Amino acid sequence: MQSGSQGFLSADRSKPKKKRVLIVEDNHLDSALFSALLESQGHEVLKAANAADGLKLARENDPDLIIMDVRLPDMSGFEATRTLKNEEATRDIPIIVTSAYGPYADKAEVRECGCDAYMPTPIQITGFVDLIHTFLNRHPARKTG
Fold this sequence. Notes:
About 35% of the residues lie in helices and about 15% in strands. It is an alpha/beta fold. The chain has a single domain (about 20-135), classed as Rossmann fold (3-Layer(aba) Sandwich). It has a five-stranded parallel beta sheet, with helices on both faces. The protein is globular and about 30 Å long.
């Protein structure tokens, strides 16, 4: 078994520079999987188990990407996404909405809340990593420090 950051995702994917990703997910297993995948790619991970904490972390830490679960204990991920997209300081942060409940990909609410992408869970690992890289490579100069 390999250890370190090369691990099971050592394929050359033209990794972006280290970025900060916020995971807003109340399912501990999904959160741990997302976190492990992102950290294996060299990214910094912030985690919140509810929308209120996620909103606070987004505002305080200016992440490069947010992964937002739809069903959170205090408010929906759709509502949290709308809130972030309506605030000047956070509106440009890409948000990927995830859900294990139902076929949200075709629902108007996914498009209307302002999310940048949708990924059903359980995730396909290579698809997840590719989607993450798409967004993290899109705005490489967004961070100033």
